[in-house]
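Handout, page 2. Input:
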Amino acid sequence: MSGGYGCRLFCWNGVYDALAPELEPYSLPAPLPEWPKGKGFATGIISLGEIEVVKINDFESVWSCRPWSKKAKGAAFYKPRGARAKAKGDNLSPVQTQLSALAEPVDYTLVWCTDEWGGERHHGCGYFWLPIPPEGYRAVGYVVSEKPDKPSLEDVRCVRADLTETCEKHGTILDLESKSVESPFHVSKMRPCDRGMLGKGVSVGTFFCTSYLNSTKEVDIACLKNLDSTLHAMPTLEQVHALIKHYGPTVFFHPNDKYLPSSVPWFFKNGAMLYKKGEANGLSIDSKGSILPCGGSNDGEYWIDLPSDDSRDTVICGDLESAELYVHVKPALGGTFTDIVMWVFCPFNGPATIKLGIMNIALNRIGQHVSDWEHFTLRVSNFTGELWSIYFSQHSGGEWVDVNDLEFIEGNKAVVYSSKSGHASFPHPGCYLQGTLGIGVRNDAARSKSYVDSSANYKIIAAEYLSDENFTEPPWLQFMREWGPTIKYDSRSEIEKIVSHLPFFIRFSVESIFEKLPNELYGEEGPTGPKEKNNWIGDERS
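Output:
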């Protein structure tokens, strides 16, 4: 949008500079290619129905600050140069009988200013204003100015309410709270409440701000809504292939991980069996998974298991040579972004390793199960085709990592580290602990000679929005049951054996930690396939 609605904000750590930092927008390691032509992808402008939106790249600094605490983050606020929003077929005239898509605010309310701030370090004066919309309209952001005078009503536009969606706070940008601040100040990121493949909410790139005195009040700004059902800015199939070949990460598996990935056809051809409840003998599965029952729900009637003969020990180790990433392409944030979800299949998930301070204990069975589906997601801007962030799935959760915090291996291809035995995804090597106080499940990630280049070894298995491409999903994708058997066993005996070897004074605390570990560590239960996961239609968990 225009004025403060396009306000760009940067955060940084470290020693504060006396002057406002001259920050440059982050650039990917390599230039973007010329994407294949087709429809509205990467044209710089996206139609949302009555409103067209563009990506702003030219900003000027308004205000910046740095709290005294070295642990706190500073922030710089910018506004776009010369940007004005305009509705299609709308000359931005005053509100009449037929409400225009956009309208000027009727006034501003001062939310917070540096006049209430004493000894903290900041550059210049900052005033944060909330536009007051006319009846039937919503504000979609705040205006930041360097003067105490109210901004011009012409600086921004409010949006007709039916063209907006509700949004929510998500993550802290700035926290100002000290003896020198009369009214502590909080700034948060914003995102649409309704996200995922079917969500129409469009992130405007603005923020929410409030003083702590009013921190409990509801969010008083909105995001935009995409009412263009054609999703014309989504990439064509040819453009999707170009994106994957340009951005596809290299997935590194831990050097000591013996449970490596394979392709699904390799898993089937090498002895995987389909079992039905009440029947002792399983059925061999063809390479396409054609015999698997399709649809329905995870009702426990069917499951997949490893072969029962000597080939079992071979199959659980996977086959790196056949391994490929299974790709689901879907709209995100109202079709202004594309999510390229890359699924990794491993025939087996190995047992967990527990970290107890300086001690590491490899468990015998706890944590293991047949089959493992993990994933990571590339989020690409449909305005330009730029990689925006990557989601790293980590067991029952995960995290979005912005491009400036990624590790790149070649050009604009990032690195994904798959943890030892459990195959959770991480952006950097290291030991990631699933627990607290130095006690929990280890997730070890490191480079090795075992890796898969997803830019070359992938298969697109689903892209629902490409209905005109005659896209055929593989039969095994429709299998909604578990890809491994459910086995209950007495894990308590193994835990008690571990605890018995510990010094007496820490036994109680260790037992309490074990009680908080995920339920899946106390028995074997195969995962469901990609289409049964919440993120297939919904947004990622974060």
